[in-house]
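ingest -> validate -> predict -> emit
validate: passed (alphabet ok, no gaps, 183 aa)
predict: started
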Amino acid sequence: MGDETLAGFLGLDDPDKTKASARALARSPEIGRAREVPAPLRDAAAEAVIWTAKNLLNTPLSNLCADAWSTYREFDKARNAPAGKTVDFTLKEHDISLSRQPSVELIINGVSTGVKLPFDLSIGLNIASAVLKIRDGAIVGCDLGKVKGAGSISCAGVTITKRETSTVRLPGKLAFDPGVMLR
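emit:
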């Protein structure tokens, strides 16, 4: 999970899956309704939308986890630790979820087509355990146990991709530099 992005987790780094998603989107009613998008340009417009989705999802999964963990309110021991001392904080089984609804506007030759395409993004992770390393009020690292995840992204009612993983044991440690401040 260390460097894997949301786009990678959802499989948008697979060129075949990306092309298939663009073809499905090009046939969607939303793009078809856009009179300003000539039929020959719809495939290119759909590919641009998929590329935009991939770029919107370049956040590492580890950052998603750290941001969620930073809002946990039970860090009193870690908050009160002496400056420079690293404190381990164990989280038992827990879920982390992300849901977003961004949209993109189709523009051709600098002119709006009037078409706004909504995305629905959903990511869910079940983490069996995590030992957070907290120093000076920030999460600076983590040792993860087993993780199971699922996610999907759709645009204009067309599923671009979805994925569900089996439970996997994650090797290694995550490091956050600079640390993620506790909120």
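The CA atoms of residues 26 and 42 lie 6 Å apart.
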